[in-house]
Specification:
The complex is a heterodimer of chains A (112) and B (112).
Chain A lengths: L3 E4 L2 E4 L5 E7 L5 E7 L6 E8 L2 E4 L6 E3 L9 E3 L8 E8 L7 E2 L3 E5 L1
Parallel strand pairs in A: 2-11
Antiparallel strand pairs in A: 1-3, 3-8, 4-5, 4-9, 5-6, 7-8, 9-10, 9-11
Chain B lengths: L3 E2 L4 E5 L4 E7 L4 E9 L5 E8 L4 E4 L2 E6 L4 E6 L8 E9 L5 E3 L3 E6 L1
Parallel strand pairs in B: 2-11
Antiparallel strand pairs in B: 1-3, 3-8, 4-5, 4-9, 6-7, 7-8, 9-10, 9-11
Classes of the chains: A mainly beta (112), B mainly beta (112).
């Protein structure tokens, strides 16, 4: 089992560029999440999904978009990147709500 | 709004010592509390999850307790080892499923 796989691990973007962070899980989990982690701050939820075709906003969704066309994949799209989006991004999954979260290894993104 | 606090931000102990990490939260109406370990440049690994109806959970040398009425949880690590060096985060799920609030973590260093 690979668990939760995120790509890329590192990326540098210029202001105004766009990119997609990939996330895939092979545990047949229903719930998937995107978090960002800023230095000295707790993780913040960007978007989440409770199943294929269903997504909803988290605490800090502005500047991001997601889709969930399959159970396995949950890509995060950054449109018109801004320096405020410099962060470490984590994808996570769980089988159901109220259960353990499984995290990917993260994507470190710098917007310059 | 739920707030999660972890004090101290950093802790250094000699190998073999038993230690306690603290987590406090402001809203006692929680679904669960989860303790994670994060190694540098890596994702989070769930260590223990305590449901709101439970008082504690144990896994190997780790024991986590939950006191909802006082808004506190502790993670007890017995016979600490250098391999336990990492940042430990707690997170509470409250105010609706998928609403997980993370603390900023305690960075633990176990000195050989």
């Amino acid at each position: 089992n690979a668990g939760v796989t995120q790509t890329p691990k590192f990326r540098i973007l210029k202001i105004g560029q766009s990119m997609t962070l990939q996330c895939a899980q092979d545990m047949n989990h229903n719930y998937m999440y995107w978090y960002r982690q800023d230095p000295g701050m707790g993780l913040k939820l960007i978007y989440y999904s409770v199943g294929a075709g269903i997504t909803d906003k988290g605490e800090v969704p502005n500047g991001y978009n997601v889709s969930r066309s399959t159970t396995e994949d949950f890509p995060l799209r950054l449109e018109l990147a801004a320096p405020s989006q410099t962060s470490v991004y984590f994808c996570a999954s769980s089988y159901l709500a109220d259960e353990k979260l499984f995290f990917g290894s993260g994507t470190q993104l710098s917007v310059l | 709004k739920q707030e999660v606090t972890q004090i101290p931000a950093a802790l250094s102990v000699p190998e073999g010592e038993n230690l306690v990490l603290n987590c406090s939260f402001t809203d006692s109406a929680i679904y669960n509390l989860q303790w994670f370990r994060q190694d540098p440049g890596k994702g989070l690994t769930s260590l223990l999850l305590i449901q709101s109806s439970q008082r504690e959970q144990t896994s190997g040398r780790l024991n986590a307790s939950l006191d909802k009425s006082s808004g506190r949880s502790t993670l007890y690590i017995a016979a600490s080892q250098p391999g336990d060096s990492a940042t430990y985060l707690c997170a509470v799920e409250s105010g609706g499923y998928q609403k997980v609030t993370f603390g900023t973590g305690t960075k633990l260093q176990v000195i050989p």
